[in-house]
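Task card 7
Instruction: Convert sequence to structure tokens.
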Amino acid sequence: MKTEKETKQDELAAIGIGAMIVFIALILVAAVAAAVIIQTAEKLQQNAQASGDDTQEQMSTKLTLINVVIETINGGAGAATDELFVTFELAPGSEPTEGDDIGYTVICENAAGTDTVFAQGSLIGATVHTGDGESGDVGNGGVPAAPVSLTLNPGTTYVVVLDVTECQPAANTDHIMIFTVIGGGSTYEELQYGSSPTVGDVVV
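Output:
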């Protein structure tokens, strides 16, 4: 039979083994918890980085208007469309952007004032400020050609002619003009027409 001393030694050994099992279990739990915390921290960091990049892109890659002038008015001097001559730049810090990646929308009411209509398009015909703002509109022999998309760079002034026939300049009206860069930001302006809009009027 075991002596009292041997019995106590067996009990101490059992306690030691139990403590070791608990210790190993705690280490495993701590390792799992640490892995979860690290994974969560990495995901949060990636999300924050992505949000920061998106915000920076939207804040920087946008259009800055210099002025907007009435180019033609439907019915005036044989004009069949209503057009605006826009002078603009890309905002400082913007990425080089293709003209057809920038869209414009003019919002107004119809003549009866009963519905909202839109004049929309892109800046695909934009030229540098020494051009006419209608790149590719007229080909050889005066034959209309497809507009050419120009790569726009910050620090350079450009011009473009926009067709706004759906939102014809009208006396004592204000139209909303919005420029939107794909993957970038938007620019909002108000076109203010006076009591008698005429060709050459500056409306922004």
